[in-house]
Amino acid sequence: MHVVVVVEEVVVVVVVVVVVVVVVVVVVVVVVVVVVVVVVVEVVVVVVVVVVVVVVVVVVVVVVVVVVVVVVVVVVVVVVVVVVVVTY
Predict the structure, then answer these.
(1) Which long-range contacts link 31-37 to residues 24+ away (Cβ below 8 Å)?
(2) What is the pLDDT of residues 27-74, one digit of tens each?
(3) Cα 42 from Cα 51, distance rounded (Å)
């Protein structure tokens, strides 16, 4: 009878240890997956922000270049008109 009780206690302890190990492994796997997902999402967000900033900078540079070209053309036309009017 004593041997049966000890075997039952050993079986209970083994089952509890197995359950605890399985729970710990599942928790570790879930934590690792969550960390990987968070890191991937952060990298994607950083890439998107960098792309948006680059596009905005390019658009601003293009607009500034167009404005400068238009101003230069207008100034040249005005100077030519003034020179033509003054000389004739």
Answers:
(1) none
(2) 999 999 999 999 999 999 999 999 999 999 999 999 999 999 999 999
(3) 14
Q: Give the count of domains, the chain.
A: 1
Question: With a threshold of 0.85, does the pTM exceed it?
Answer: no
One-letter amino acid at 87 equals T
**Residue 21 burial by CB count (10 A; 0-12/13-18/19+): exposed, middle or buried?**
exposed
Residue whose entry in the numeric block shows the structure tokens 């070209």: 69
Give the residue numbers spanning the domain of 37: 1-88
pLDDT of residue 5: 63
**Cβ within 8 Å of residue 4, ≥6 positions away:** none
For 72, residues 6+ apart whose C-beta sits below 8 A from its C-beta are none
Q: Which two tokens stand for residue 49?
A: 């922000």
Cα angle 63-69-73, degrees, rounded to a multiple of 5:
145
